[in-house]
Amino acid sequence: MSEIEWPWQYSFPPFFTIQPHAETKARQLKAWHTLVLNYFKANNLSSLDIREAHQSSLFNNSSIDRKLPPEGILLVLEDLQKSGNATPLDKTRNRWLVYWHTLEEWAAIIYSWAQANGFLNTVCTFFELVSGDDTNEQEFHGLDEEVLLRAIQVLETQKKAEVIPIDDSHGVKFF
Amino acid sequence: MDRFEYSDPRLAHGEEFLMRENGVKLYDGDSKTTFEDGELVVSNARILWGRPGDIPRGQMCVCLPLFYVVLVEEEQRTFSFSSSRKFVLHLSESRQGKPQGPVTWSQHNFIKISFKEGLHNDFLGLIQNALMTRAWERLSVAPPSASSSSQNVADRKWRSGIVGIERKIEEKHKATDESISLAFQDLSRLMNMAKDMVAISRSISTKIRDKQGDITEDETVRFKSYLLSLGIDDPVTRGAFSNQTEYFKSLAKQLAQMLEEPIKEVGGMMSMADVYCRVNRARGLELLSPEDLMSACRLMSTLQLGLCLRTFDSGATVLQLSDHNDRIIIENTAVALEESGSLSATELAKILGISVLLAKERLLTTEKQGRACRDESLEGIRFYSNLFLTKEE
Amino acid sequence: MGALFGKQKPKSRVTDHDRAILQLKQQRDKLKVYQKRIQGTLEKDTELARKLLRDGKKDRARLILRKKKYQEQLLSTTDNQLENLEKLTQDLEFAGIEAQVINGLKVGSEALKKANAVFSIDEIERIMDETREGVEKQQEIDEMLSGVLSDQDEEDVLAELDDIIKEQKKETEPSPAVPDEEMDELPDEEMEELPDVPSEEPQESTAAKKERNKQPKEKVAIAAS
């Protein structure tokens, strides 16, 4: 777990209490929004379970002995959902998928890479995209396959790709 | 003779005709009665005597239910020159609630029947038979005598089981109703008496008021407190609207005068609990009820007495100086937060020398304005300067 | 197209050709994963061989090295084959190369199976084992490998083995042979007492090293014969 540079709010105890004042709350959530995405990007994480969130230092700052309560975490996630950076994985809304680029952004990044490297009208396995040697320099290298799937699905709706299920994974054809 | 009843000669269902004789005379004990020369009809349940022709016509006659008969014997004639035979019928106690008869009371426990025109039937035998068969027990003429009661009661129960239970319940209800109305009778009596007392006290209070001028309110107050201690609700303020507001108005004036200094001392605001305690401590004897205090305080702002009632979002109610300015308070609180970084309500209370409740209200008001933010933890709530809004990103 | 029928699923633009290539790619992906794993264990295997040699189990050490060689070979062969196939499929008509594709797939999966069979670390540990099980396992693997490696491969294996032995000798030799000198190396003044050493004080440490270097070489000459 690489430690990112924590923002000043992280050491400010009120940061871990959801503020009742509307404007204050908006600022607070904005700070959480940025922090969560940075943290996830730096540690290459893609999913989160609210019930186990306190195990990570993201929502639990032991040095000031403060934790963001589960209701607060849910609020932060819903805020991320609104901006297109998170989506719940089940009805109970305990498990979430979080991506520092929105799905549309990921879709665009991947497609432009495919275009630039002559992968249009060819097929690739998901494995190739995220773990292949060709994509080492790419932002999406190491991306969670769940997120990748959803990003490709965005491309599907744009008629720029098609998902091909194979065994327990997927392939994609770019057009 | 008092065992006889007026009766309908028509035979009941199941009642059998046994014999008839004419020229029959009835004796009450040994004494003659007016019942002579009549027709006697005997059935297996009753002995009927009526004026000649009455019985056949179905008209009212007198009857002796056979269950009264304990013993029948013929009287021994001393002289055999008369052809009339006399029989003695010994009778049991007259039963309660027996239908009306020709004679209400008789000292004798036996009657005699004489057959002037001769006896053509075996009267004795027939009667004795009838007594043995006790046919009346199977008919509706049965008496509630102890010996036969068990069988009767059983019959009755068997016949009217559910109906009997229902009747019992009904009776119970009736009994309860009665007792309740009895009880209420007492209450209404009590209320009537109270009405009198109320009238008296009213007249007294009007008299007092008429007698004196301004000091009336105080005296009235005292009087009211006496009545209160008696347990009678304040009759003076009830109904008379003008009286009520006048009372509260002057009370408000009094309180405002009394409280202005103390409220200033504690920073311009005092919780109602504090006000209540101080006021009653000062008054000593003529204590104010919380409701009266509230009513008086509510009038204060309209009367422009320098104080007014204020309720916070959290529900806390305080009395504060009219010229109390929230903005200044918020400013002061914000500065205090900046100086000490963070404060809890208790800490602020200590610093300012005010109650914890008021300190908390100050912090909450400051937070509402966006000048403070909160930190909730197991130790309680602390407030910080609102760096979210003030710090440059 | 979709507009006409609303809910109807749009026709797939993925051909069977595409699917075949995708399958090949998937196999390549799996092979790549295995390659990476094997690379990770190369160091371990070499270390294992060293340990076995230290324990005097030369045969077993050789076995490990042979196994290693075999795996590498297997994977690189298969990889090449698949790459070729991929190129083929992209150039030619699908129908014509269907048979080749199926074959290619077969080869690939067989290679994977074989690699898997020899790959298990538990098995390797059992080779270390002195018990009968260990011996049996060794024989089993021996049989599997016999005839698979070329002569050149076998030579390479032996060469590697020798290298390791040399390394070990360098480390192990000084301690039992020259205990006195080792002890005397510590106090500086006493260096002059050593027989063969040109006693120049500032060059003590290097001198000591030279001495050490001289002796093992002689001994290696003896061992080789």
Characterization of this structure:
- Chain C: It holds the Pfam family Snf7.
- Chain C: Residues 163-173, 207-225 have a biased composition (Basic and acidic residues).
- Chain C: It is found in: Endosome membrane.
- Chain C: Residues 17-44 form a coiled coil.
- Chain C: Belongs to the SNF7 family.
- The complex is a heterotrimer of chains A (175), B (393) and C (225).
- Chain A is α+β, with helices and mostly antiparallel strands and 175 residues long.
- Chain A has two domains: 8-98, Orthogonal Bundle (Arc Repressor Mutant, subunit A), CATH 1.10.10.570; 103-174, Winged helix-like DNA-binding domain superfamily/Winged helix DNA-binding domain (Arc Repressor Mutant, subunit A).
- Chain A has five helices and eight strands.
- In chain A, the strands form three sheets. Chain A has a three-stranded antiparallel beta sheet with strand order 1-5-4.
- In chain A, helix 3 (103-116) packs across helix 5.
- The N and C termini of chain A lie far apart (38 Å).
- The model of chain A has no long low-confidence stretch (mean pLDDT 88).
- Chain B is α+β, with helices and mostly antiparallel strands.
- Chain B has three domains: 5-138, PH-domain like; 238-321, Winged helix-like DNA-binding domain superfamily/Winged helix DNA-binding domain (Arc Repressor Mutant, subunit A), CATH 1.10.10.10; 326-389, Orthogonal Bundle (Arc Repressor Mutant, subunit A).
- Helix content of chain B is 47%, strand content 20%.
- Chain B has helices spanning 54-57, 123-133, 146-159, 161-211, 216-230, 241-265, 272-283, 290-303, 326-340, 345-352, 356-368, 387-390; strands spanning 5-7, 17-28, 31-32, 38-43, 46-50, 61-65, 69-74, 85-91, 110-115, 269-271, 307-311, 317-321, 342-344, 372-377, 380-385.
- In chain B, strands 1, 2, 3, 4, 5, 6, 7, 8 and 9 form a nine-stranded antiparallel beta sheet that branches. In chain B, strands 10-12-11 form a three-stranded antiparallel beta sheet.
- In chain B, a hairpin with a 5-residue loop joins strand 11 (307-311) and strand 12.
- Residues 141-150 and 232-241 of chain B have low confidence and may be disordered.
- With 225 residues, chain C is mainly α.
- Chain C is built from ten helices and no strands.
- Chain C has helices at 2-5, 16-54, 58-91, 98-119, 121-128, 132-145, 151-172, 174-177, 179-185, 204-224.
- In chain C, helix 2 runs antiparallel to helix 3, helix 2 (16-54) runs parallel beside helix 4 and helix 3 (58-91) runs antiparallel to helix 4 (98-119).
- The longest helix of chain C has 39 residues, at 16-54.
- Chains in contact: A-B, A-C.
- The A-B interface holds A 8-9, 12-14, 16-17, 19-21, 23-24, 27-28, 31, 65-66 and B 342, 367-368, 370, 373-377, 382, 384, 386-389, 391.
